[in-house]
Amino acid sequence: LRDLTFDRILNQDTRTKTITYLCTLSSSAAILIAEKTAFSPDSSTLLTHPLTPPNILHHGSNDIYHWFLASHSAGLCPDKDPRGADLRFTLIHPATETHIRKYSAQKWRAVVETPEVYDKYVKKYVEEKRGSGRLNWVYNILDGKAERDRVICEDKDEEWGWVVLPDSKWDRTTLSALYTLCLVLRRDISSLRDLRKKHVPWLRRLQSSISAGICAAYPGLEEDQLRLYVHYHPSYYHLHIHAVSLEHDAGAGQYAGKALLLGNVISQLETMAGDDEAGFQNVDLAFTVGEESELWQRIF
Amino acid sequence: LRDLTFDRILNQDTRTKTITYLCTLSSSAAILIAEKTAFSPDSSTLLTHPLTPPNILHHGSNDIYHWFLASHSAGLCPDKDPRGADLRFTLIHPATETHIRKYSAQKWRAVVETPEVYDKYVKKYVEEKRGSGRLNWVYNILDGKAERDRVICEDKDEEWGWVVLPDSKWDRTTLSALYTLCLVLRRDISSLRDLRKKHVPWLRRLQSSISAGICAAYPGLEEDQLRLYVHYHPSYYHLHIHAVSLEHDAGAGQYAGKALLLGNVISQLETMAGDDEAGFQNVDLAFTVGEESELWQRIF
């Protein structure tokens, strides 16, 4: 290993903490893949073990959230060179029962929501989630009362319009991690379930104008480098499209069982049996829910 | 941080190298999330820097593959306690041009394959990939000539039958990481593109019998804890279903744009316009391809 000379980086993955190098060893090519190890179950000794990071740097706080970097190496101090850090810590204190539930592992279940189950149980759950001011944060954005400074691009037409904002997880700079949210201006579509064959022209225009708008705002990004998808179930019931760089691994939110590509939603509607009112209300939808979720506990 | 007392582990993710603890601090609950840092771009100094891991353990080789564990801490030696390792290394030497291509980052593209593009270009690509003995490894398994000892469960009916084997990535023990492959016995279906409305009864029986078979082989696993999906495009053109534990993060192979849930494939066929011969040959399919792939370079 120590005789390797490094030529160049072939690949890296900041999500899985791996990096791959092209190297030379004994006059022939070699590939070195380095990967940080996962924590072992007895990491409860993380901060008390002789291995305890000698250097801990507190680098920010916001309300109950506190962030730290730490380094095991006595010779390297994170506040001199943060790149020398081995570990990140996030501390949430004080933590409520809601926080504990949110951060606990939960088991997952594969369910099939038939049109009958949707009509009988899910529809009123969705209406509840749309009522009592719960979507006010969305309407404030659509009405231009909030987050105006964050808008990336938009179309203000009442029927065809939409607004694109950066997702809070994106640093708004790294193009390969572009992660945006598109809210439609019309207020009559709660989710995939409300999409019908008659919406196909509207969806096609949405798809092409969002892509064009984002790429105009970020030259260097091409339209076929974006993944446009919806969630079912979504986390709030006002139709929104996620537009994310294909280079970006956004985790479970992009999995089959949660995400549906907008292009495939459109083509499924186009080839569906029935008239203009036929749509996703007629289809069995298979997806994944967590056992801690309201959907599982109240309905499935 | 040092005043925290640890109560229990709430969650951990060996893929992203994070662990979440419930703790107590100043008599109230706190949540600590620890995460290994990603490699910084100048990690080409990985093995020559003063930070160079003093302890490197070679723990296996197979042909051109060599594996190592390493620890930065002078006090902890991986060959005494492998759990003390900070880094894993995989060395491939000598590496060929094919290896270098495989391990290099590639850009991704979102494409739409229309029925016309499928008929005109993709069909003959698929036929090429099914010919010249390329599927012999599959037929050897179906004929019982290979991997008999690895079969988890099967149905030997010529038309309705299938065989389930563990995926090579699975240790065949950890239920939460269950990762299996189901090959259908019939040889006339190359991929999703060949599925028609008339196949719905066959697909429904496939879905229920695979789930039942796997859960009978692994008591403790329930049928709704499995994700059953197909890939488009698949890595070989003989229809196969992936059956994976919902607890298992299998990465990009489970993303929308690659994976389609079997339940949704069935329901899309059921609600599709047309007669029994209508099917996925009639649909625009949106998915992701890598710029290094044959599909991109030869067709898209």
From TrEMBL, chains A, B:
Active site feature: 240
Domain of life, per lineage: Eukaryota
Gene3D superfamilies per UniProt: HIT-like, Scavenger mRNA decapping enzyme, N-terminal domain
Gene Ontology MF term list: hydrolase activity; RNA 7-methylguanosine cap binding
GO cellular component: nucleus; P-body
Chain segments annotated as transmembrane: none
Positions contributing to substrate binding: 137, 147, 167, 169, 231-242
Protein name stated in the entry: Scavenger mRNA decapping enzyme
Source lineage: Eukaryota, Fungi, Dikarya, Ascomycota, Pezizomycotina
